[in-house]
Amino acid sequence: MNFKKRILYAVLILLMLYIANIFISTGFFRTIENSFEGHILKEINLPGAEDITISQIDSFAIVSSTARNKFPNTKQEIGGLYFIDLKDKTYKPTLLTKNFNKSFAPHGISIYKKDNMYTIAAINHTKEGEFIEIFQMKNKKLIHLKTLKNDFIYSPNDIVLLDENRFYFTNDHKYKKGIQRLAEDYLGLAIAKVIYFDGKNYTQVADGIAYANGINFDAKRNLLFVASPRKFLIKVYQKNKDNSLTFIEDIDCKTGVDNIEFDTEGNLWIGAHPNLMYFASYAKGDKEISPSEIIKINYKGKGDYTIKQIYMEDGTRMSASTVAATFNNLIFTGNVMDDKFLILEKTSN
After folding, report:
1. For the chain, which residues score pLDDT lower than 50?
2. Which residue in 121, 134, 332, 336 is deepest, having the highest Cβ count within 10 Å?
3. Domains contained in the chain, CATH given
4. pTM of the full structure
């Protein structure tokens, strides 16, 4: 065999290994079997309910809804923040942002309570750029306080408030478009970041993440959790006194983890995409459905955790689950761009 043929065969082998790695690392060969110990309690007609967060104390949910058609968007998306009174069994969403007269396509959200007032932060994707919107809510009335725009806010995905002024947020990509963006998605380059805002200044506090997605902070344990769906990981960090982060470990979830919510016992509840290739096709409008999964993580400390699958379905009832927020025995599970989201009622823990 001459030298040129050897080079050709070597290139072909590397190409096959590269393609095989993409399919394996995105869950393409995973078996999807419908499974849930419970039932669908209600379908809520609200498009693209990508993030849902719940106040356990005051018994309400805030839903981030955007009417998405496909990715990338070709026109300005239209969305809003909705309030659901969890004491009212109709679970009817009430639009909070009807008087917000700006382009608004909310994505990740976070709430923080002080006294009787809630601060609500929302990632906002617009044709004019990427922003973070800060609102104040009292007695179901929402007031817009400010719009944050900065070079650090270039590909924001999710956000978690520490108080009325301080927060962490994720930038899920380093590059916006082109071959570099494709390399991030398909090679799984770990170059996404977490940013901290102290009320005045922005600081990068974590990097080396493949698609930094959902983020949440457990104040009782002083731990920050970040989802890396491209690597099927939940990354765990210790929050330091100066608000920098110390990496602790990766939790291998074996699914494309998205938003992170806590229950009253401190367990992590995560909406996920078990097959990222199907999800990518669905997001582009090439497939009608994409499978959904919900997992629960009981995290006790470094190396001491359990992962339990709570829900799995092929996407027929709801595609591309992104969040699982619990309230008593209910799970509010949202999605990327279906025209409805689901309230599940579980019959076991």
Report:
1. none
2. 332
3. 3-28+39-346 (2.120.10.30)
4. 0.93
